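Technical note accompanying the year-one report. For the benefit of new consortium partners, we illustrate the data format agreed upon in the data management plan: each record pairs a sequence with a structure-token string. No post-processing was applied to the example shown here.
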Amino acid sequence: MQNSSPENLATSSALLERGRRGEQLAAAFLHQAGYQIVAANFILPVGRNRNDAVVNVEIDLVAYEGPTLCFVEVKTRASDWFAAPSANVDLRKQRQIVRAAHAYRRMFGLTNTSYRYDVVSIVLPAAEESPRGLQIELLRNFWSEEKFRKRRWPERYWD
């Protein structure tokens, strides 16, 4: 059971606000870089978990860079002292986004469209915390689906 003390609620609220602000900055950054934003915070059901509850996944930004459809994950942190924000786009998160992207492409009839997975990494310190200020980095083609494809073994592999 989670502790819902006023301090924890304030911290949670601040984190959500930082995340929302980061997504707004990322959308503006991508727009300036020539991307055409077509969706933000797009939520799709991608399956069920072990308890048979529906699993929903959010795609932070969906955009086109030229003819390429980009599924963009935005990670915002107050500091990169320990690790870059993009380090939090782990295999589990990548797998979830791949599943959501497949559902998105099927839903809109875009199965033959070229696509990729990008990450926007943002360091957004509080004004009083850091003189360095805002840092935004676009990581194009951050991962591919190849590592998530099921391997098929040949019928006879002992020849």
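Partners are asked to follow this layout when depositing records. Strands lie at 36-48, 54-65, 68-77, 115-123, 135-143.
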